[in-house]
Design brief:
The protein has four helices and eight strands, in the order E-H-H-H-E-E-E-E-E-E-H-E. By secondary structure, the protein is an alpha+beta fold. Strand 6 and strand 7 form a beta hairpin. Helix 2 packs antiparallel against helix 3.
């Protein structure tokens, strides 16, 4: 029996997804490591180099550690603004063959409907903030946790039946229940 629910992505949802996506990847981890190493290098070399060089080290550091979150926060506001594709409400139906996604409302361009067969799902990740169903390594359907709170166990149960265990990152469902 198909399971249907609606979800609407807000700026904070998109921001959290992208922060998680960026900082759990190799390049995200390396940007933090390089940023921290630059802080240490600037601190250790403060007497050896001039003030201008130390300021340059700290400026580079700030770029490595602060630029990405600020850029993602700004972008989150743009992609969820009125009329943008993520500003609409999405209706998800988990059926026998795959996930049917329909956009409610009038989108200016493109299709209002998509179908993602289970065999084309790259992975599914459940966090405290939401469920991310990846259609590739970088693209995912963002389903905020608040929109599936009543049926999260049913959604996860269907995905467990349809996907391989290596495609699932659900951890313990009770860890994410609201109390």
């Amino acid at each position: 029996m198909p399971l249907t629910f609606k979800a609407k992505v807000q700026a904070d949802d998109w921001f959290r997804f992208n922060m998680r996506h960026n900082y759990t990847s190799f390049s995200g981890i390396m940007s933090v490591v390089v940023g921290l190493l630059l802080y240490v290098a600037a601190f250790l070399a403060r007497e050896r180099f001039g003030t201008e060089n130390i300021i340059l080290f700290y400026a580079l550091d700030t770029m490595f550690l602060v630029y990405t979150p600020i850029r993602l926060k700004t972008r989150a506001k743009l992609v969820t603004a009125e009329g943008a594709p993520l500003s609409f409400t999405y209706s998800y139906t988990l059926g026998e063959e795959g996930i049917d996604v329909e956009v409610e409302g009038d989108m200016a361009e493109g299709e209002n409907h998509a179908f993602l067969p289970y065999n084309q799902i790259y992975k599914a990740v459940l966090t405290k903030q939401g469920l991310y169903i990846y259609s590739s390594r970088v693209n995912a359907y963002i389903i905020p946790r608040r929109d599936i709170e009543g049926c999260v166990e049913d959604v996860c149960g269907i995905l467990r039946k349809k996907l391989q265990s290596y495609q699932l990152n659900f951890r313990s469902l009770h860890d994410y229940r609201n109390e």
